[in-house]
Amino acid sequence: MESLNEFSVVREFFSDFSRGKATVIGPGDDCAVLRLPQDTQLATSSDTLIEGCHFPLGSSGDDIAYRAIATSASDLAAMGAQPLACVISLSLPEIDIAWLKNFKHGLSSAIRCFSLPLVGGDLTKGPLTITVTVYGSLPAGRCLLRSGAKQGEIVLVTGTLGDAAAGLAFLKNEWEPNCDDKEFLVRRFFRPESRLDLAASLLEIATSSIDISDGLLADVGHIASESGLSIQIDVKKIPFSPALSKLNNNQQVLKWALSGGDDYELCFTMPANKNIPPGCTPIGFTAPGAGVRCEGYDNISSGGYRHF
Amino acid sequence: MESLNEFSVVREFFSDFSRGKATVIGPGDDCAVLRLPQDTQLATSSDTLIEGCHFPLGSSGDDIAYRAIATSASDLAAMGAQPLACVISLSLPEIDIAWLKNFKHGLSSAIRCFSLPLVGGDLTKGPLTITVTVYGSLPAGRCLLRSGAKQGEIVLVTGTLGDAAAGLAFLKNEWEPNCDDKEFLVRRFFRPESRLDLAASLLEIATSSIDISDGLLADVGHIASESGLSIQIDVKKIPFSPALSKLNNNQQVLKWALSGGDDYELCFTMPANKNIPPGCTPIGFTAPGAGVRCEGYDNISSGGYRHF
Lengths: 308, 308
Description:
Oligomer: homodimer
């Protein structure tokens, strides 16, 4: 293989994934060009993941690529948007072919899974950092905000909570899960589920929505404060995976579920008299006042990851 | 001032700049939402600048913010696109209020100067790094690529070349400019000119275009290779600022101009029989064959910055 510089690395590892219905011009020019579907507006979000902060040192390229795209895709899902494309800015300390092959593998899976063709990017030398920008479409004039919840609605989440935080705690040697569950929990950290398939129905039925990145209580707190109401969570209704259920709902499990973050499930509100979308669990309700109450869990003040 | 975390920093320093004709939803939700003008397509680019690599250690927040937005805006100009908005992912080692105030100042100038309202972003803890994603609009079905040059056309550049590289060399203590020129040269590095005002006329008249980030010869080389032709540059026609002109066109000045990069001027091709846009200088022509020839300058092989 020729001596690799950023141009040949981009050609070799990042140029095969640009085809998509919105792609007019993919990687290799000054900008990517996207054609939005008729009568739509653009939803977009950009997130940076840094080694040692957002994923453990020594994580595989495969996992890092997948997680970076999944966590950004989750922002599109939370807005009710349909995926169009993504762009990646990658900073690497060195060119490591084995690592890059691995990265390409994770990239390829995530791009397929989230329908986010890679239309551009940037490769620089520096500490291992990945910034993913995602582009999605929304019907003109419509989107799902954190601020739209009304009093007397129900609060729901997708999937199960706490698995990713439990998986991360295992990666940090903070506990030892049952042998059968290790792979599942670690996978829940590195391979968040796509909830993009729910985006269209949430846009119809939900009044507010957020993705759970910082921990349920912190994120549901954003809905409460931006909607100007209070939210009451019923701890007994939190959905757990079999792996966490078998730990008998102890305070550690609750902490993972309520304050752990990293699940990238969606939390949303909707009128109580409508049909609940499949895979979603009601966990509470909105009410007058402010803040989040969660009886049976005392650790609210520690809710949510803080960078500083 | 309250103890600052990423939420209060975003509120305090980054939330005032979102108003713009395309902005539907600005910072603070899962995604920003942009309304594109009718019958347009989206041009977008994402670039990362890392301290110690793209700007010297200890650069002011003011300069870093301005340069980051300017260099990304330049990608829009090179495509012939009109600016709509930008999003910033910022990684900081610590919360330093004085630095952030400075950063906000540069941000504010650049946002105004490049008409790129800040509609979203992300703040994380890590090595000082800034990723700017820009969004622009292009008439449906049209854009300016590197691959569109035809044989027998003229090659032009905007502004003057080499100033930014000379300014950077001074910042690195590699030479000592005339006292009167120091500020001008350093400013040319940190405050690249906006060429967005040329974008619309280039879209009408130019056949190919690129912004000069890696050095003229490297970047014009992309036009040559992607358009399948050769380009001949006439060294005597390279436009120099008064600050560099007075150095008598020596090989060091040529090296800054031809291989230095960082000017973020535009290089483009157009038919020889059309009117040259104001502020642009013809420096060569396209011909059959491949590669870039540049008589009077021997250093072609060193052309262009390489990250790895």
